[in-house]
Amino acid sequence: MRVSSDDAYPDWEAIYQDNVAWIHRLMFGKVGNRADAEDLTAEVFVTALRPLRVSASVGEVRAYLRATARTVLAAHWHRVMGREITTIAEDFADRTEPEATASDAPARASAALTRLPDRYRRILELRFLQDLTLREAAAELGVTVANAKVLQHRALRMAAQLSEEEAR
After folding, report:
1. CA separation for the pair 129, 153 (Å, rounded)
2. Which H or E element spans position 122?
């Protein structure tokens, strides 16, 4: 379904169907794993459900969803990284087709993983490359689920620090 930007959506189903794909792609591009992207996409729509008017124009709806996505993503990174994120890159374009350009993200991720200590690298590989649950990753590592959570948290923090250092 495609709606022109001057029209209004007929109902919430139309809003969801017309916007879910680009919001999911956006979230997946920001967090890098399907499970978190799906959760964050759902959170965007749940958050927008009450204040968003169905009678708003398509452009207004998309602008509101982009703003909501920024807020949801900032809250996610605050939970994951344990620090407040005050800016998020303004690449929340309203895309209807996926970009065909090659990304250097796999190379950057691989480089970041090689710089991590073995246990940190292993937990991230299990969780995000092999798409294991925390329970499965903990069993693979021979640790408790709580310990796997701590390892993952520390590994993500160290990876972020290394990435920041590399960017400078």
Report:
1. 16
2. helix 118-124
What distance in Å separates the CA atoms of residue 113 and residue 136, rounded to the nearest whole number?
20
Q: Which contacts (CB < 8 Å, 24+ apart) does range 142-145 have?
A: none
- Report helix, strand or coil for 72: helix
- Start-to-end Cα distance in the chain: 44
- Residue 57 DSSP label: B
Burial class (CB in 10 A: 0-12, 13-18, 19+), 124: buried
Q: Can you tell me the distance from the alpha carbon of 134 to that of 144, in angstroms, rounded to the nearest whole number?
A: 9
Query: What pLDDT is attached to residue 105?
Result: 65
In the three-class reduction of DSSP (H, G, I as helix; E, B as strand; rest coil), residue 8 is classed as strand
- Dig out the tokens for 30 from the structure: 């920001």
Amino acid at 122: R
Could you say which DSSP state residue 19 is in?
H
Question: pLDDT tens, 40-82?
Answer: 999 999 988 888 888 888 888 998 999 899 888 888 888 877 7
pLDDT digits (tens, 9 = 90+) for 115-128: 899 999 999 888 87
Mean pLDDT of the chain: 80
